[in-house]
Design a protein that fits this description.
The chain has helices at 10-27, 35-41, 49-54, 58-84, 100-103, 117-126, 168-181, 194-208, 222-225, 254-265, and strands at 3-4, 44-45, 89-93, 110-115, 133-137, 155-159, 186-191, 234-239, 270-275. It is of the alpha/beta class and 276 residues long.
């Protein structure tokens, strides 16, 4: 029996990035493949006709590439950390229906998927826990979730498309608490400058009745914007469209590679890595 997802609900927001990963696998199979996303879509009772129509557009195809590159980047960071900490906790913050952590499974690590209770209800129905995969329902700002993470063998955290919706002061508080609690851990997430965040949040801000986004988290200069918060931490970043992959695959249009340069440069789209 398929899991029913209503239109115009929080649950629907989980479907869109899932479809993006499926679409990118179809468009750029040499760069990205997410069989788990395809499998999960098959378990959903949802009208995909609107997404299928939009998938033919230039903007949505490039958006699918963005989603895929971000996931690939984060997987590279997780796998790199697991080389020296094979039994570490791999923690996917604001996971939705994303399975990036599971795609990095080395057979020894312990995976924690963390998101709001309403989201985790859907995830638990579609992606039940196992011996090494745990689902944690919480608000990220309530750091009591720290106690559910067993990090004696290290911990690597990832967050994809999550922190744009947080205010800077909340992110600062969260990161400081993480740096104190998870010494020796790594935290990797995507970020962008104020210009890009304004574009990303335009529709959401309007619907939420918010008139200004100046308080929302953005990153222009990684060292200047984040390093002062975290004593003893090392903060670095790489462009997330071209920082890990040059996108010179034959299947990628030249126009997409040009936009990737604009994204990494003008918009400061980046993967930030914090070594606590």
């Amino acid at each position: 029996m398929k899991y029913h997802v209503e239109k115009n609900t929080v649950q629907e927001t989980l479907v869109i990035p899932l479809y993006g990963r499926k679409l990118c696998g179809e468009l750029f199979p040499n760069l990205f493949r997410d069989d788990k996303a395809v499998e999960l879509i098959g378990k959903l009772d949802y009208d995909f006709s609107d997404l299928e129509k939009k998938s033919r557009s230039f903007a949505h195809r490039f958006g699918a590439l963005e989603v895929a590159m971000r996931e690939n980047d984060l997987m590279i960071e997780v796998k790199d950390y697991l080389k020296t900490h094979p039994k570490a906790a791999v923690v996917n913050l604001g996971c939705g229906l994303d399975q990036t952590a599971e795609n990095c499974d080395n057979g020894e690590c312990v995976i924690y998927n963390v998101d709001l209770p309403g989201v985790m209800e859907v995830r638990k129905a579609l992606l039940p826990e196992s011996e090494r995969v745990k689902n944690v329902a919480c608000d990220l700002n309530d750091t009591s979730w720290f106690e559910k993470i067993e990090d004696k063998n290290g911990a690597v955290f990832i967050a994809a498309g999550v922190f744009y919706y947080f205010k800077t002061q909340d992110i600062k508080k969260l990161f400081k608490a993480m740096s104190e609690r998870f010494k020796g851990g790594r935290h990797c997430f995507d970020a962008a400058n104020k210009r890009a965040v304004k574009i990303m949040l335009k529709t959401w801000v309007k619907e939420a009745g918010i008139t200004s986004i100046k308080d929302y988290f953005s990153v222009s200069d990684t060292r200047k914007d984040i390093t002062p918060w975290l004593e003893g931490a090392t903060v670095t970043s790489r462009g997330y469209m071209l920082g890990y992959n040059d996108l010179k695959d034959r299947s990628v249009p030249k126009s997409f590679r040009f936009l990737a340069k604009v994204g990494d440069g003008f918009m400061k789209m980046q993967i930030v890595r914090i070594e606590f």
